[in-house]
Amino acid sequence: MKHAVISCLHANLAAVKAVLNDIDQQGIDDITCLGDLVGYGPQPNEVVDLVRERAIASCQGCWDEDIIEGLNACECSYPSQLAEKRGHLAHEWTAEQLTDINKDFLASLPTSIRRDRILFVHGSPNSQHEYLLPDMNAFAALERVEKAGADTLFCGHTHQPYVRELKNGSIRVRLQNTSNNKAEEKEINLPMRKIVNAGSVGEPRHGSINATYVIHDDVSGEVEIKEVAYDIRQTCQAIIDAGLPPIFAWRLSHGFEFAEQAEDASHVCER
Amino acid sequence: MGRKWLISGSPGCGKTTWILNKIKSNQGACGYLRLIEQANNNKEKLPESLIDYTFLKDQAPHLQDLSDCSDTSMSQQKDFLILIELSQSQSPESLEPAELNPYVKSQLESLRLQPDRHLHFGRDSELPNNDTLVFKKLESWSLNLAKRVWDPQSLNTFWFELVNGAYGDVYRAKALMNLPDGQSIFFNWIVSQKGSQFLPLKTVSPPNGRPESPSALVIQGKGLDCIGIESTINHCLLNDALLEMHQTPLRNQQPEALRTN
User: Fold this and answer.
1) CA-angle at B166, arms to B218 and B129, nearest 5°
2) Which residue of A lies nearest to B155 if distances are taken between CA atoms?
3) How many CB atoms lie within 10 A of CB B260?
4) What DSSP state is assigned to residue A155?
5) Cα–Cα distance between B54 and B211 in angstroms, integer?
6) Which of A73, B11, B133, B223 has a CA positioned 20 to 30 A from the CA of residue A195?
7) Is a pLDDT exceeding 80 seen at residue A258?
8) What is the DSSP letter of B43?
9) What is the CATH number of domain A2-135+152-160+196-260?
10) Which residues of A make CB contacts under 8 Å with B?
11) Shortest distance, CA A252 to any CA of chain B (angstroms)
């Protein structure tokens, strides 16, 4: 059966509506959301309301967590002082706007959703704030999937959609026993594991201004990355009307994420 | 026998680069003066003059600044070369200095500098045929950034946004920016050329607090969001505590002799 996976909505109502419409047109009614319903975008309540109305199963993203827990929940730094100032501004604005009901809803979201051997998370099984970048060290990537007991891991957070197949994985352990001075060697061969990143609905960072999501066929294992155009002018106008920094509208309309990506791939979170 | 040349042209046509090459190839003493077309009540150097002179002096340390003195001493020297840079928004109608803007003429007279040649970009074949944009009715905005130090990553983002139109249609941007490690970077961008020029100056300040080296930003364009630019700049500049945090490890890496200076 086909199901859709969406992530990183970032309070961009026009983009969310366009993606949900695209999913509906394909007759898919099983949708999973990987979090970051809010943050930077101008319609946090509207987006949370829509996700609740449609009863979309959702994980908690780093922004969702930070809105509840406070700014330092992830204990990490932004890639630059400018990004930090903009992030804090967006955080304060979003926290002010969100209704208590919607805050409670975000607080109630689980950090992961499991369906048999498929796991859905925002960042990685370790944390909502950890990036699983497409070029991450293969061993580390495999470790994240294997440790979580999954065959396929769906994640978001990077805003870059990708499918990564980890083939021929093997882990060799050499254990030195000090009591008898004997070395014990163990090799574990793993079947193929898959990491699927759903990209971002509300804040794309894949070189285009279009929203992205993925469709997964859990029988064939096939994954399709979908790109959906939406009325970006509507969101940009809403950013201006909301009194958010106009630079957010400019960045969104040019396909640049609200906060620039850290050059250091090991950097944990930029919200 | 020396030479006094007036080099004019629109912003971004390549005057400063051409002047630098001329200074580097001259055997004798070199003097430089940058003129403006309109009166400036501020006695301090304008940001664009500050950027150009600092950049040229860094690249050619023997260069003499003629902005506040006459050329009498220089004129006594053999093979001297005085280059007078004039940024113009319109092509002069004549080769003769007499046809120059009255304010420019009065500046030349008060400094007793009468150019024996006037070369204009876009008109004289002796100069390279660079892009010469017609800068009529363009807004110009500048900011003196003396003693300001940038968070390097933020500067990168700001410059990217600036030259890609986030704060209005920028046709030309030029700057000298201070980094916490003491480096001063010359930024140069014009809409008709691909990419920005980033050149670290040879003169590096010690990482001991706020640098004394000049720093400024000059932008020409249309529909400039000056409030937005200034707001972003304020978000990018380091406060004293953060500057200290950047500089402490750098100071510890320096040899003892330099640290005490």
Assistant:
1) 50
2) A82
3) 7
4) E
5) 14
6) A73
7) no
8) S
9) 3.60.21.10
10) 79-83, 85-86, 246-247, 250-251, 254, 260, 263
11) 11
Work out the number of other CB atoms within 10 angstroms of the CB of residue B30.
24
Q: At what angle do helices B226-236 and A81-97 cross, to 10 degrees?
A: 110
- Dist CA A25 CA B3 (whole Å): 77
With a pLDDT cut of 90, the percent of chain B lying above it is 48
Residue A24 has pLDDT above 90, yes or no: yes
Per-residue pLDDT at A47: 98
pLDDT of residue B131: 61
Query: Per-residue pLDDT tens for A111-126?
Result: 999 999 999 999 999 8
Neighbours of A44 (CB within 10 A): 31
Average pLDDT over residues B97-118: 80
Q: Are B212 and B192 spatial neighbours (Cβ–Cβ below 8 Å)?
A: no
Binned at pLDDT 50, 70 and 90, residue A264 comes out as low
Residue B102's pLDDT is 83
Quick check: A78 pLDDT over 90? no
3-state secondary structure of B230: helix
Compute the mean pLDDT over every residue in chain A, rounded to the nearest whole number: 89
The 8 Å CB, 24+ separation contacts for B25-30 are B26/B79, B26/B81, B27/B79, B28/B2, B28/B77, B28/B78, B28/B79, B28/B80, B28/B81, B29/B62, B29/B64, B29/B74, B29/B77, B29/B79, B29/B80, B29/B81, B30/B60, B30/B62, B30/B63, B30/B64, B30/B80, B30/B81, B30/B82, B30/B83
pLDDT at A52 over 90: yes
Interface confidence, given as ipTM, is: 0.83
The b-or-e profile of A74-106 (16+ CB within 10 A means b, else e) is: bebebbbbbbbbbbeebbebbbebbeeebbebb
Which residues fall within 8 angstroms of residue B27, CB to CB, at 6 or more apart?
B79
- φ/ψ of residue B178, rounded to 5: -90, 135
Q: How many other CB atoms are found less than 10 A from the CB of residue B99?
A: 11
Alpha carbon separation from B112 to A192, B69, B106 (Å, rounded): 82, 9, 10
And the tokens for A35?
């979090």
Which residue of A lies nearest to B237 if distances are taken between CA atoms? Answer: A81
Residues of A in contact with B166 (CB under 8 A): 247, 250-251
Q: How far is CA A238 from CA A17, A91, A231, B200, in A?
A: 15, 17, 11, 41
Q: Cα–Cα distance between B7 and B95 in angstroms, integer?
A: 11
Q: Closest Cα to residue A41, out of A249, A198, A208?
A: A249
B210: its two tokens: 């706020």
Residue of A77, A80, A84, A258 to mutate for B, most B C-beta atoms under 10 A: A80
From A51-65, A209-223, B102-116, B127-141, the region with the lowest mean pLDDT? B127-141
Can you read off the two tokens belonging to residue B110? 């008060």
CA–CA separation, A168 and A65 (whole Å): 36
Residue B32 is which amino acid? Y
